[in-house]
C-alpha cells in the first residue's frame, strides 16, 4: 500500500491514478473529503484495488498523531510514503510578507512532511524496507525574487531529505527527492488566492510540465530495485531553463 499526502489534486492525484493503474493499493489523504471520496470510488471501480482515505490536515500535529493511532494497522502495510502535500501562499517581498502565510507554508511543507514521515518510519525501520519520496522543488535549490519563504521551505525539504538518508543509513529505507520546475496544477491558483487570471498567466505562452509527468518520475523512482536509491530528480519543462528564465512563445 502506498500512502500519498495531498492526493486531492495535481501531482498527488496523478500519482494515485498512475499507481492505481499498476494495481497498487493506496492510502490517500488531504483535507477535501469529497475529492478523496470521488477518487476512491473511481479508482476502486476502474482498477479493482483497495483505496483507504482519510481527511487530514497534515499541519496539525495532534491530528496527525490521532491519524497514526487510528490507522496503525494500515500504516503497518504501507511500503512507501509520497510526501506531496504542499503549497505556496502569495508572492510578496519579505518586507511586505504576511506572517500567517509564512506560518502556513512552514507548517504544511516542512512540519507536516515531518509529522507524516515520523508516523511511518517506525514500521519501515522494523521491516527494514520502505521508501519516502519528498516533493521538493527547483525553488529549493535556486531562490527567485519574491519566492523567499516558499523557497526556504523547499530548501528545508531538501535538507531533511538528506538528513533522513543519513539517519536511515543501514535500515534499508530509501529516501528520494523529486524537484520539479513549473507544473500546471492548482498550485498557482492556491498561491494567488483563487485568482484564475493571475494563475493562468504563469503558464502563458509556454508548455509547463503536467502532473502526470511528475507522477511518472515518482513511480519510476519507486519501482527501482531495492538496492537502488534515486537521491534526487530535477525536472524542468523544456521551455524553462531556470527558476527565472522561461521562454514564452508570445514574447517578441
Ligand atoms: P496542488 O495545489 O494541485 O495540490 C496540493 C495538494 O496539497 C492538494 O491535494 C492539497 O489538498 C494538499 N494540501 C495542501 N495543504 C494541505 C494540508 N494542510 N494538509 C493536507 N494536504 C494539504 O499543487 P501541486 O500538485 O502542484 O503540488 C504538489 C507538491 O508539488 C507541493 O509540495 C508543491 O510544493 C510541489 N511542487 C509543485 C510545483 C508546481 O509548479 N505545481 C513545482 C515544484 C514542486 P487539500 O487542499 O485537499 O488539503
Ligand atoms: C513550484 C515551482 O517555480 O513556482 O515549486 O516555485 S515555482
Describe the model:
This protein has helices at about 10-20, 35-45, 60-70, 70-75, 100-125, 150-165, 185-190, 195-200, 210-220, and strands at about 1-5, 25-30, 50-55, 80-85, 130-135, 175-180, 230-235. The protein is of the alpha/beta class. The protein has one domain (about 1-235): Rossmann fold. A 7-stranded parallel sheet has the order 3-2-1-4-5-6-7, with helices on both faces. Helix 1 (about 10-20) packs across helix 9. The chain is globular and about 50 Å long. The termini are far apart. Bound molecules: NADPH dihydro-nicotinamide-adenine-dinucleotide phosphate and 2-hydroxyethylsulfonic acid. 2-hydroxyethylsulfonic acid (8X3) binds near residues 137, 182 and 243. 2-hydroxyethylsulfonic acid binds near residues 137, 139, 147, 182 and 243.
Summarize the helices and strands and which ones pair or pack.
Layout: E1 2-5, H1 10-21, E2 26-30, H2 33-47, E3 51-55, H3 61-70, H4 72-75, E4 80-83, H5 99-127, E5 130-135, H6 148-167, E6 173-180, H7 187-191, H8 196-202, H9 211-222, E7 232-235
Parallel strand pairs: 1-2, 1-4, 2-3, 4-5, 5-6, 6-7
Helix pairs in contact: 1-2, 1-9, 3-5, 5-6
The chain binds NADPH dihydro-nicotinamide-adenine-dinucleotide phosphate (NDP) and 2-hydroxyethylsulfonic acid.
